[in-house]
Write a structure and sequence with these properties.
The protein has about 250 residues and is an all-alpha fold. The chain has 12 helices and no strands.
Length: about 250
Amino acid sequence: MTADLTYGGYLKLDQILSAQAPRSSSPDEMLFIVVHQASELWIKLCLVELDGARGAIAADRLRPAFKHLARVAAVQAQLIQSWDVLGTLTPADYLAFRPTLGSSSGFQSHQYRLLEFLLGNRNRAHLDAHAGEPEVHAKLEAELARPSLPEVVGDLLRRRGFQAGDGAGLEAAWTAIYRDTERYWDLYELGEKLVDLETRVKLWRFAHLQAVERIIGRRMGTGGTTGTGYLEQVLKEGFFPELMAIRTSL
């Protein structure tokens, strides 16, 4: 135990609290910065927990995986609520400092991209946004070289004796699990936690869309993105389509 370790020293508060550097005179820019910095910290924790869940599932240790996924669900609640805080920013508030953002955009968040890659939404074209950041680019490439969470789940089902080699096979496997929950209780519980994960990611995306639409309407986003158009598109993207499909066929 280090006797001279302080609260601020342990948490590196001098670094964290000095990391907000507004580029305008608008008092509302601080809100914008803090919300996004806090979100990046929460995403960092999600990545740690989801990687832990992936490793536990790969090792067929589902109880630890459930703990990781439950923690991610709690973090996602914080991320969803963060858009309510940002939503207190009015269009006039935002336009007062928007020019200072330059070409920066949330689309450039490499942690968000790592999250999408880990969850199986893998589009190599998204690496282009980080072509000038060798370390970030290497992290994204490393994630693409690893099995995604849906792939690890599929491997688990096959090890448990299910013929789950493609979409139809995965759907048949989950159908069998959900029709005999007593026999496959741990897999059933895993399925429900994965559905919860996907649902919360979609709620997070929707809350983001609503906040952006409230603040900038249908105008282009910073960094040349399509703003709400892009956010509407990603709302349709899921990670565990077979688990969602069996709700109809059960």
